[in-house]
């Protein structure tokens, strides 16, 4: 069973993610007119595999997509899917990564934090799988969606952000989707040339929170390694068998680069688990695979070197 990644044109929160729109503008450096949300048709996704978690309970708004920041986003996702991006068999390493885009659990940055990441991983010999997980419902029309986002930002801007473990408690549908993704990849590991012991997960912003939640859930969904890209740095309880973690954040991130310290990193170190932390001088929030003049653009190369250091990219005999 073989899948090829589908092609898309090259373009370009839970409540605690107030200020997301401003953060993305700061991150991408796009012009003001690129900030506008423009509805688009749902793109073809011929290789997307529907996960068995079922439709989002109580959902009334259908899935829709829009362009913004020279990229594309999905919202009102009610049925989760997983799309494989497989490397050339000649360069396949056996490693695999489930990619969780961000968007505050209201949208998904499918291109900048999904497809483009997966394509880059496949080019390095890593089987990548983009997780389109179920989202919190928003108004189906674009003006209503924009109003709901503005209302959320204004209502939560001054409210203290909950710690990650409190926020994780409200992510049952998304955690179920991530766990189902791990089960599916392991079921097809032979078909997709994947080593079941080398399946990791990388997440961006809200996707980083989902990656943490999946890690803490454990069992058959536990990642072998994780990447947390511009997610929260609040401390949490780290299990004794936590996987190696790669963490990247920009010092000018308006959401998570606070003066409260690096609790997440301290938690991983206190548990005596491997962790690598890149704190870039500039990059804002949402830099993902955008090519910028800031050093944050180098996160992906550093991540691949980190995977290599941990032996994840060394093919097994």
What's the quick description here?
The protein has helices at 20-28, 111-123, 142-156, 164-168, 172-187, 206-217, 263-270, 299-309, and strands at 38-40, 49-50, 64-68, 71-75, 81-85, 96-100, 107-108, 127-132, 199-204, 226-229, 245-250, 275-280. It is α/β, with parallel strands linked by helices and 317 residues long. The chain has a single domain, classed as Rossmann fold, CATH 3.40.50.1820.
Q: What integer is the average pLDDT?
A: 87
Structural class: alpha/beta
| Helix segment tally | 8
Q: What is the β-strand count?
A: 12
Question: Strand order across the biggest sheet?
Answer: 2-5-8-6-9-10-11-12
CATH architecture: 3-Layer(aba) Sandwich
Supply the CATH class. Answer: Alpha Beta
Reading the helices and strands in chain order gives: HEEEEEEEHEHHHEHEEHEH
Strand fraction equals 15-25%
Largest sheet, in brief, is:
8 strands, mixed
Number of domains: 1
């Amino acid at each position: 069973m073989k899948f090829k990644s589908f092609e898309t044109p090259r373009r370009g929160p839970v409540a605690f993610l107030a200020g997301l729109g401003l953060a993305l503008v700061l991150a991408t450096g796009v012009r003001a007119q690129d900030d506008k949300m423009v509805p688009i048709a749902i793109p073809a996704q011929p290789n997307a595999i529907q996960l068995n978690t079922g439709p989002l309970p109580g959902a009334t708004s259908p899935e829709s997509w829009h362009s913004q920041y020279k990229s594309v986003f999905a919202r009102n996702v009610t049925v989760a899917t997983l799309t494989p991006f497989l490397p050339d068999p000649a360069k396949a390493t056996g490693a695999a990564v489930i990619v969780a885009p961000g968007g505050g659990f209201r949208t998904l940055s499918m291109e900048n934090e999904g497809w483009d990441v997966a394509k880059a991983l496949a080019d390095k010999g890593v089987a990548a799988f983009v997780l389109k997980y179920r989202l919190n419902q928003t108004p189906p029309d674009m003006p209503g969606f924009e109003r709901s986002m503005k209302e959320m930002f204004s209502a939560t801007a001054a409210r203290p952000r909950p710690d990650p473990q409190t926020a994780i408690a409200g992510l049952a549908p998304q955690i179920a989707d991530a766990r189902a993704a791990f089960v599916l990849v392991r079921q097809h590991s032979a078909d997709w040339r994947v080593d079941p012991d080398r399946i990791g997960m990388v997440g961006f912003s809200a996707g980083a929170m989902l990656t943490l939640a999946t890690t803490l859930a454990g069992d058959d969904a536990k990642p072998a390694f994780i990447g947390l890209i511009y997610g929260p740095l609040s401390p949490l309880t780290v299990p004794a068998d936590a996987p190696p973690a790669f963490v990247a954040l920009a010092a000018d991130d308006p959401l998570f680069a606070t003066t409260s310290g690096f609790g997440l990193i301290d938690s991983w170190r206190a548990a005596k688990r491997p962790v690598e932390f890149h704190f870039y001088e500039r990059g804002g929030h949402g830099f993902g695979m955008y090519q910028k003049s800031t050093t944050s653009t180098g996160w992906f190369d550093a991540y691949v070197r980190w995977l290599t250091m941990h032996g994840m990219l060394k093919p097994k005999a």
